[in-house]
Batch of 3 targets.
Target 1
Amino acid sequence: MGTEIELDVEGQTEPPICGFKSPTTSKATTRSPTLTTLNTGTIIGEECEYRADDDATTTTTGTGPGGLPSFTPEAAHTLSVPDVCAFLRTDPENGIDDDEAARRLQHHGPNKVEGAKGLSLWTILLRQVSNSLTLVLVITMVLSFAISDHIEGGVIAAVILLNIIVGFLQDYRAEQTIQALYALSAPTCKVIRSGVTSTIKAETLVPGDIVRLGVGDVVPADLRLATSINLSTDEALLTGESLPVSKHAEVVMARDRDVPLGDRSNMVYSASTITRGRATGIVVSTGMGTEVGKIAGLLRDSNGGRNKTRVNKEEMGTLRSLVVRARNGMRVLLGLDGTPLQVTLSKFALLLFALAILLAIIVFSVSKFDVTDEVLIYGICVAVAVIPESLIAVLTIATALGTRAMARGNVVIRKLAALEAVGGVTNICSDKTGTLTQGKMVTKKVWLANGTEVEVLGTTHPFDPTSGSVSIGGEVFSLADHGMKDPEEAIGAKGENLKEFLESIALCNNAVVTKAEEAGTYSAIGEPTEIALQTFAMRFGMGKSSVLAVVDGQSQQQLLAEYPFDSSCKRMTVVYTSTESGGAGIACAYTKGALEALLPLLDASNEQKVEIVAKAEALAAQGLRVLCVAKRSVNGALFQAGNDVSATPEKEKASASIFPERSSIEMHLTFLGLAGIYDPPRLESAAAVQKCQAAGITVHMVTGDHVKTATAIACEIGILRSDRLQNGTEVMVASAFDSLSDAEIDALESLPLVLARCSPTTKVRMVEAMHRRKAFCVMTGDGVNDSPALKKSDVGIAMGLSGSDVAKEAADMVLTDDNFASIVTAIEEGRRLFDNIQKFLLHLLISNIAQVILLLIGLSFKDNDGMSVFPLSPLEILWANLVTSSFLALGLGLEDAQPDVMQRPPHDLQVGIFTRELIVDKFVYGTAMGGLCLAAFTSVAYGMSGADGLGEGCNEDWTSECGVAFRARATTFATLTFLLLVTAWEAKHFTRSLFNMHPEKYSGPLSVLKTVWQNKFLFGAVSAGFVICFPVIYIPVINHVVFKHNAITWEWGVVMACVVVYVAIIEGWKALKRRTLKAKMVTGVGMEGV
């Protein structure tokens, strides 16, 4: 065990007292001595070549001085500054001139990262028609128009158009919302051209430009550092590293071309942020040639599908590549490449289409293939009856309404299919920094020299010193509740040691934390670690501004000197004197830094040092970055000569030479305490993870952060259990995971729950491993480094506030509030939608099965000419399918989530939406409905048949002989309509009785009324279906000419009898299922006891 030794702290917002760390520069016309052997195109000490015909990401400026080979940005970190300048023909002090910049801009193009493909209006439109069900409807529409059935064809065309319009508008609005969230690229930057510094648009940068960087700047392109002063950058969006990384211009990695991006300390990359110091850098690549651009390019080339075959003409012949492309295109067109529900419904539509053809053939065979107009119409009617025309429209509208509900919950759905897909997830792979955590540092724990422990509890905002509470020696003080004891008073209660510690971290600090007067919110500038320490001191009213408060026109403390943080010594020291001593007396040196750097300098016994190390290791084991804080008294007179500190490097060097040596000040230090700092979890993360686990969803953390930090956070939010850490595969480092072959990964008992130090490739391999295990996974993330995995996963979810543009482009969903808990809301909504899809799918298929049974057996009903009489007319079939059933199905799609929706495991992806229960139910209910409709028709047709029988030609026109046939058809239509209305309420739950559907909410004989009123849209749809049935049957002309039925009287008794019998059958079937389910549960309990 040990403490974290890499301490990237001490952000500078004012010039430090040390000179530039830069190598000796040379003019662009001076040939570097290290390049004298480069005419062969090879760097000395490294086997890598620079060719003019490299890929599109290569930045080339022609042949370098003296015939030098072309330049590749990937090797910039292996070259010295003079070498890079020689290659790019630029001057590190004066840059290039405007004419040369214009020429290079024309050659390289603007410094912009192009978005991923798939945002065009054509692509969005293609999404709406790329499914088999739509194609089947199109074929049905064409056949309807072909036989001059314009009413049927027009209705189906309206359904197709409605689906396309609703889906297109939803996807288009989602894309517009995503566009409004893009805010990654730097709009302007400072550049040196012809020796003059000016501010230009970042998109006009070209390779060879010299860029100046300061604290808070967003790096506009990939730069090779030329000079640097205590520089650190935040590369979390690119590498996933939660803490800033120190950068050094003088480093040359001549033999380390393949070193990871995060370890290239002489490079800064586009979209990263400067957190400390200042620097100048040489632009080595712009636009799509940057590291961010390369990832965006991968996304543009990605096909995004799990089942598509990637086409490579070089690896396969032209003919074979065309076949593969055609196959991929056909899969997309038929909807066979998408989410499980999309694929299932597309296959189901193809099955129905085949069944429709079979049924039409059966109809034609009955007439011995003497296909007259009547036979053709009847065959098409039977075929149409088996196809749920309204299914795709109901599915699209229900999903769009669910999307609108999710938008209110801060989730933007970019694709309608993503909403139902997220309901079936089995695994969530989440980034840590900024997703599960807040992405900002907080001082979590402090251990003082006298043994007192201080801990920050329940803070909701890392910059707000009034947020949460503090525990001092076990006593909790609220920072927001002024009714409790003021925390400032605790300083006196716990002794002077706490006050000294707070004073030290406040003064040895360059961060600035301020409160906006109007908004009342806190903001901070500086290095994240220093911000955390400054905020901690402010919690006790001892921030830097308070300690340096002006009294009687004079500050109580005066800065004499600052020894800035340096990676070589890993510590920072400031020297202050009080105004009472006038600067000539005793001054105090305040020091903070890594424990291993300060421990030898402490004036403490070996026993005390052992105790300090033990406590530091205990804090480090909790995933905290440990800082040591100390102080000592020094002679203030030693610093008077060099007290005039200016911002120029020359004066900094001069003043630094007057000050005492750093080593003479940083010695015999008095230990004050240890500070444990970390990136805290979001308050809602633990509850969200717990909900996921209760729902049978496994949460994985895949992060670029250190394994110890990742493990601590995972334990804190519940991803890991401390008693399971002995399992070697629960936590893995990416290097170990990447070293395994796919077969070895598949042989693991389970995939790691925590995967640390991840690269983009590691995350993609994790997703692929889940796919091989037949898991359906969600990947969340905010950084550019997350984008390939977001694209590869089944559902990619990006962060809207802190996320990069590239991540948002790659995602299927975007969280506008960056709240991990919103993912749980999305999953719950997805499960609700899946349940409701099953409900309205059951309702629609019951109707189709009933109609098929009715129409096939109806072939035996002959008129006086021996021709089959339609039990239902073509328009009655369409009315039942598109008008009556559609609104009922849509009402079922708006059902509330079941109480146990997040207490059950994900549905079986192998089974999909067509579960055994749904298949059995639809045949039981459909057969019952079809049989009762047949009973209704035969009761009227043969129960009151007169001398005319069923008449002649009653399928086409009304005649006086068609009275019985038309009344029988009206009775059948009314029976079918009323049974569909009852089915809508019965389908609200697959097993519970309609008369006792919500026993946890309603009870008593009138509970059925509350049940049917709960879903007001469905209640309205049932009521409207009931009322509209009467005008359809009774209005003259409409009944005879359009629907081909007649008004009925006593036949309503037959209709009511069929309804009663149907309800009895459904309730009896549900009771049988409940009894069977109860028996299984009892058997399970008995076996469990054994």
Note: The radius of gyration is 37 Å.
Target 2
Amino acid sequence: MYAKACEKFPKSQEKMINWYMSTIRSEDLNSQHQVAVKLNKTFSKIESKYYFWSVMTVFLQGKKNPKPNVYFTLAERMMQKAIEEKKVTDYQMIYLYISILLEQKKFEEVVKTLNSDLSLTLFKIEDDRLRLLELIYTKSGLFKESYDISLQMLRKSPDSWLSYQSMFESLFHLDSPDLNFTETFISEQQQQVQYPTRGPFLAMIDFFDRISKSDLKHDSTRSYLDLLISYVERVGDVYCCFDDLKPYLFSLSFEDSKTFLQKVEEFIKKDDQKTELKTRIKNNNILVNYLKFERFFFTKFTLENTNERETIVLKNIEKLFNLYQNTLKFGAKNLDKENHFGDDFLILIVFYLIDLFEKDKESLPHYLFQAISILEYGLKRSLYNIQFKLLLIRLYYKAGVFVRPITNMVVELDIKQTLLESIGWVYIEGLEYLASGKKLIEASKTFNGTLAIYVSSEKETPDMILEAFQYGTYSKIEEFMEFRANLKNSLQKFIYETLIFKTKLRRIVTFTDPDNEDEVKFGNSEGVKKQTYENVLENFNDFIESRVDNRDKNIFLNWSSNAESIATVLNNGEVIPDDKAGEQLIKFARSLREKLTGFELKLKKLRDKLNSAKEIKIRTELFEEFTPCFSHDLEFIGENVAKHYKLSWLLSLNGLIFEIEQLISILNPASETFARNYHNYVNGYPKTQELPLDTILIGSSRTNSDDSFITDSASGATAFSCGFKTYNAAIAVKSDLSPCGTVLESAKLNGYLTGLVATSRITHATPAAWSAHVSERDDENRIAQHQIGNYTLGRVTDLMIGGGSRHFQHKSVKGSKRTDDRDLLAEAAAIGWDVGTDKASFDALTSDSKLPLMRLITQSHLSYMIDRDPTKEPTLKEMSDKALNILKSSTEKEDAKGFFLMIEGSRIDHAAHSNDARTHFEEILAYQETIELAKKFVDENPGTILISVSDHETGGLSVALQEGIEFPIFEWLPEALTKQKASTAVVSSVFEKKNKELSGDAKYAYFKKEIKSIFNINPTDEEIAFISAAPDAQTIDNFLGTAVSKRAKLGWSTHGHSAVDVNLYAYGAGTNALVGSNENVELGTFVETYLNLDLEAVTKILVENVASLEIQPLITKRSVSHHHQEL
């Protein structure tokens, strides 16, 4: 296509470059050269670079050709011609020429070129030229010249480790190396540098180490051991001190090791709180390095007696944990993304525990669990510690746990691009052994995600190569091409593809009768045909040899003398040994192929191959068995800490979580857009300014109920609270009228505190669905009884703040809705509730207020924000702030596991029912302020998560309006809403009274004046006539909302709900598991899993005692038309 375009437009430089780009993508070097020649011939007067493009393509052809000399000779001559014609004007062109010469091993010509006046002029950085010379001298066997270059570079840069390595490489190839001169030279360089420079000091150690491994003799006043000790004395407070010295520790004898440790221990000063913090941190770093040295020698000179070894290890762990606790105060002012200074103490504990576990996996499995819990404990304070997460992924896999690492840690690591190639193995190897059932789908997604780097490489690498051509960075072209080839022939890519293949095979198997071995068949093959796995195995041995292994197996810290001590656990035992990488992964497919006959398998064989590829003895469900030994073995840490560890451990199986805030609102995508637009308009902000919710959007929720595409609040909230779809109007009961246990109930029964906050009546559908069980949402009197604890489970709610006192008050109280003789407020107070029913009682609450407490500030719903009297009613933010502080404080005082709090911005929905846009905005803004508060709470309390979602959309809002058949103007007008003074609901109630009191011209004049005053609009005669004839307040309310919205160019499709998917927002560690589109019931399941709850157990209790719930039968399923004017 591009070739034809260039024939038609031969002078189009752009089209010819696009042609050249296409040849790079297709890796067609012959065509690439032809196009480069055409570019040079046509545009050489404009761009001289095309000549060098031709040279480069000839050179690349030579590298690909079995007879390269012809190409290299041609490329060399072309470069010589360019030099003669003075076309070589950049050091990158020199690099190209040198590369051509090096391929022909013309080292002398390379040296001449690098020492030429042209190179001296063009090389921008002299060290680059010298480094090349140093390399060429070494390659050509001119070791004396290379040694001299190294000396020259080190005199300029005495800390250059590369130059020291090059110097030693040359030195020890000389026939008569001058060791005395070299030692003196290094000593001189040491005098030239200041702390914390390490290069010349480490070089001296390396120098002596090389001598000890050679046949050379060298007399010196320095000893190898003294050099090591003096190095620690100099830079022992630098984090990498241990890693610097580790290669040199292996040669120390047992006695020298003891001496070394004794001397290093002397450098550690006793921690003194009066000492400057900076000095204390440095001293802590010396201690950390000392303990790493100690571990190294402990594993080097290990004790054979297992019991004695275990005793020593446990003492070390006790010491290390106490040290970690002492360092926490150092990080009091750390930023969120900073690791704590004592994190390495915890990693050392984990290494020791793994040692013990590896010695006897059958008898000491609890050490594996302790290692997991230690890391989870540390992760609470160092949320971004990569080593913690990498270790946890592998340890969880070893323990047979799938959910926590994949849904939390892998997502949080956010491994991208080339890291997928080098460290993706950390969470891929062994995953297929753990995934089964629905988890296979998650495993498939994970495997497919790992292919991203290879897809992007195919698209992006050619662009990188072309850019290198465009900018003349010829030294990068080979690098990019090698990168592309490595990824194309990647062993890891093959492993990923094989895992995808294996997972597909497992997913397409259907067991028709598990008890009949012959009734086993493959279902829908999803495109996996018989030839797929046969072709994978053809010429396998040759294929595997051609793969490039880019996996980084040194990603984990290792402070042991035995490189395999940690790797055995981290590699999950039998997963892909390095020397035969990929072989085990293919064995599965090979053995499976042998047993495939017409896609029919016997059940036993299928289970053996598909589900028992690796025996996992330790499963999540077995963890409870180890609770006693777990707590016992941690007694040395102290009773309170052991309690905390046990808590961490039990919760960490599927996610460590202490608090969950569930925020509910009726906030669909259009409402969020509308609120953001209006907020930015009235405040003069840029159109792109975000609201708090915008920053935590992660997905969506599908809202249909069991009996309708359009849900109501009762069934929508029940989906969240119970994880079940039910009929509209149901409050925590299923469609068969049987009760379902809720997250709030299970949380309470499992040791959490619980709370409800709402701007509606606390007995309204959404808060009720977490705390009561009735067949009809309007049964609010019975809901109130359940909420105070008058039902099967007793009291499960610790805190309630909102409106709705009318359903608790005795019927003698004006405004009460009770019809019996009960006074639920008095009953609640009698069983320990702290009861209040006004703003003053709310204001009196502090973080020390005792639970249980309720503050029912109004008889019905709280007022809209636009109508609110701040002296009588608090805001949603104020109520939420009180609730969070009280629950947090009570959690600490009562030693609870944490708390669950449901907060509802209820009146966002009510305003949308009225189509009252301005009131809708004010409620959304109040909710956004509450979100900002909740986000801050999550930030300040690691382990807390926030989920915000709507149970449905209301009003069918569209931020646009077309009134006629003409093509509309693209506009909406926020200005039309800015002067509104009250909600349409309040105004409509007043207008309903005036309709009865006034008539004729007086009524007309009143409505015209009031509508103009309250809404800043000029009503038409038709509009006034409609209001005058309206039968009730709700009709007026609906009409006013539409009238104002029409002037703002906002459209509403209903005064009810719609079937639109709603936005899902979440914040906090682990919430990325909710990314994407979710059924509303999946949110309830997520919280259940996250908090390690058991809703089924709660449901069983409720069903066994269903008679006491007095769930009333439904005469007919009602058409839900509830409205905020149910007063």
Note: Residues 508-539, 572-659, 1116-1127 have pLDDT under 50 and may be disordered.
Target 3
Amino acid sequence: MRCQDPRQCGQKLIRRQPLEPREESEILLSRHLNILHLVVLGVGSTLGVGVYIVVGEVALFVAGPAIIISFLVAALSSVLSGLCYAEFGTRIKWTSSAYHYSYISVGELWAFIAGWNLILSYVFATASVSKAWSYTFDGLIGNHISQALQRGFSQYMPDYLARYPDFIALAVVLLLTGALTLGARELLLVTRVFTGINVLVLIFIILSGFFKGDLHNWKLTEQDYTSITPGSGGLSSLGPLGSGGFVPFGLGGILRGAAICFYALVGFDAIVTKEQEALNPHRSIPWSILITIFICFLAYSGVSAALTLMVPYYLIHPESPLPQAFLYIGWDVARYVVAVTTLCALTSRLQSIFFPIPVVIRDMARDGLLFRKLASVFVHTGTPIMAIMSSGNIAGLLALLFKFSDLVDLMSIGNLLVYSLVSFSVLVLRYQPEQTLSKKEEIDISRHEASPSEPVPEARTSRILKTLWFPNSTIPTLISGQIVYGCTSLLVLLLTILSVILAQWSSQVFSGDPGLTTVAVLLLLLITGVTVIIWRQPKDPGPEYFKVPALPVLPLVSIFVNVYLMMLMTPRTWTQFGIWNAIDHSSSIPPRMRCQDPRQCGQKLVHRQPLKPREGSGIPMTHHLNILHLVVLGVGSTLGVGVYLVVGVVALFVAGPAIIISFLVAALSSVLSGLCYAEIGTRILWTGSVYRYSYISVGELWAFITGWNLILSYIVACASVAKAWSSTFDSLIGNHISQALQKIFFQYMPDYLATYPDFVALAVVLLFTGALVLGARQSALITKVFTGINVLVLLFFMLSGFIKGDLHNWELTEQDYKSITPGSGGISRLGPLGFGGFVPFGLDGILRGAATCFYALVGFDVIVTKGQAALNPRRSIPWSILITIFICFLAYSGVSAALTLMVPYYLIHPESPLPQAFLYIGWDVARYVVAVTTLCALTSRLQSIFFPIPEVIRDMARDGLLFQRLANVFAHTRTPIMAIMSSGNLAGLLALLFKFNDLLNLMSIENLLVYSLVSFSVLVLRYQPEENLSKKEEIDISECEASPLEPVPETGTSNILKTLWYPINTIPTQESHQIIYGCTLLIVLLLIILSLILAQWPSQVFSGDPVLTTVAVLLLLLITGVTVIIWRQPQDPTALYFKVPALPVLPLVSIFVNIYLMMLMTHRSWTQFGVWNAVGFVIYFGYGHSLAGKNHQQPPASTFQTLDKNIPDAESS
């Protein structure tokens, strides 16, 4: 799949798209749009958030009254870019965006960068306009929403995010996303009406400003500033003064303001997309662009002048400048008129921004530069539903969390880059030979050019230099095209360096600093020389269309101005911009470079594994395991570190005696997940892990996430059990090891690591690793024996607790706490008291305890792996899972009750709770018995955890999702030695350095995620049509459906809504499956938001906080509605061994409980979880995503035939 020849990789990156119209562009359109029509369209697409919000932000913080000059600079830059757009639009008539222009002229790599940043600018524009809509609406009703949200959230929001989550902006984006998903179209009439209203109100604002304005506001001094009382006129705070006057922030402020104001002038490119409908396009398009920019400049500069004359610039309201300005001058009625008009204008602008996003994403996906699934078109509406949902969700998240100023800066930098690439493309395309634009006439340069390693004669060198000044041909040739391409690339590099110098050290350059001034002059000389070389090359004498004048100077000046404005952006903006582009390079370009077939790159993320057994799994197995066997296996794999260590940690620090209730909550959550495991395990009997289940049901990406987190959960579990083994052994010999290591290492260990390196835990892990490398196998007999001993000792401990326990330990008070002398009974320190009593840490402690206790109940999934060996798996597997969870719950709750009755919860020893409890009550002999039993139980648990790790790693490596060397098997022992060594070393490192609590929390969060994905898989698979399991029957919807740009009748939309409630078919179809997949993803997103609110602000929600309670209720209503839509869809009628009852409610409740428990985890756990998954995504997108497709090129002839073997006849069901 990788490029064998390095030349191939380079050629793919600069491969240009043929200059041929697409199929959907061949429809003949009548030319009826004159200049007036185009100007109305351009102004409607440009005037919006810039005039209503950006004006206030820039005038207040960046430029003051000199914002007028900032808009002039931004307008001049836009004129240069607009002329380049005009040439492209009239030259390449069927294209619709800068992405296509770049692909045709400068090749795939630059086209990808242009398209990716075009998506960035559209998405951030959508988020920023929705935030502006939210600010305006909030200002209209008295800022009650923002004030309530600030009180509730400001203390939890980091500095680099907004002061509060903007749920109104999120709702606006989701509403627009839903409308577009259902087939809504941009209405030209609405745009015209709103544009007319917009212009009239802006004229009113400008006239009002000149009538009520005061020229003194352009001459303000420090004395005026100090005399202002914040709060007057409805204004709450003072902005910066600067130096006062008309230009308070100097030339630097004007130029930085221009960089931001550039965003306000984005939108004229909508005119270019109407080339096929324009009358006399070579004249009307450039003139329409120029007139549009001029009108918008007049509007922006007029409003800026009026605003800064009406209100001193340092008193401008940043979020609602125009309505608050009328409040300041006492025109309260006008304030409401302007606010309502602002909402109308922003709504119009929002539709003009958001509607093109899916089109760009769809085009890039069709070209293979983004995941091919994003090009899928929904049957009834003709809309690219995946592109709409993905862009809408990202825009909504940005609107919810990011600052408005950051969004504006990011959109400005994205558009400046895109416009620079358009200017670059114009320059290159004008000097290209005609044959390079046709795919049929592509020339392999390597056949005609000399090898670069061959010596070049001096005569030839002089000839080349002469050719630079006196070209041999009067029309472009391949050589001249290469010269222009190379020189233009060099010029961009030189202009970038010059822009950095002028932006960062402008004062030193113009004050005559010897070093910087010399460098700047040399750069100017080089730029002039290379520009002359380009000027001397022959241009394309193509047909008549609009051509940018003064070539090559005008496009180069445009690039320089754009790059210079980009360099004026803040470091934070560049960081965010860099992250966005790092994502594109890491996730999209490497797979693209490696794929020989462009179709593969888009399909692999959602590729599902064929539903058939792997080699070796088809060996006939005798059905000999009954429910008792399976329960013994499940209990042996589940009881372990949870009952011996988790109980102590949670009772001491988190829940107190109420840990019993925590285990009950965790058990209920496990039952829900267990039932989902049972269905998917009995449905697909030959599989061995949740990784395989996910691959079969929901595709490669989700399978990788599941498998990757399953590996982490196993590794962390292994490390935590090894640390528990070490703590128990150390306690057994009097804690001498830990005390000695703490004395030596304590001062060198940072706070986020353990207090000392645990060499005993490391040794235990390495011992198991070595045994596994040598071919050791898990012993079922040892598991059974240790399980029996384990249960007997736990029964003894529970009976001891009830005999020696004291009910007063469930009713402890502060007086009892103060009377304790640390050191008595072998107890070295006191834990927290909380409120005392049975629930010392409240409901929050119970729920947080449940999130941690969930880890203790992990292990029942081993039962599902024995599906082929189970007697009557339809009955035995679900019942075995339920009985296992019930027995483990009884054991955990009984031990917890006994422990908290024997010892006050704040005196429990966290690292060795059960042995130390016997020491506390004076039963010293029992202490040693329990300690030895604990070691046996932990040893058994360690083998049941550690042995499956290499199997999962090997399976993922075989599938190409991890490095294939990890699947190598050692000849003599038949063990995947690389997988064993890598997982063992990582587990040993974690056991050596990390705290037990951190390992515990990390494993809980990993297992909660994995179990949520299992529930998700069950829900998707039950509504999946049979044909989806066969790759031969896959349909590329994008090839069959109408263009999403075509109008859809209103009856179509009503039919879709009707279909959601009354499906046409009684069995699953491709359409119903898409509905289920989209609805389930939407519900998961809503459940995440609801869980976050309930986990972080439960008291405010249940105490009736107007904002949070309303948001929670709305989320519940949305979740209920979407659940009903899922419920109404047809299910797969195929008979199964076991089916989850109450579908779709039970899997969704399981997902909600799991996500809610995840949200209760600590920030440190989420950070560690994020780091692990970030590493995983780098591996997947940089390596696994491309390699996985190698194994999927030859699907089986019938993947569903093997399913029949696993499904009972109708009679048996």
Note: The mean pLDDT is 77.
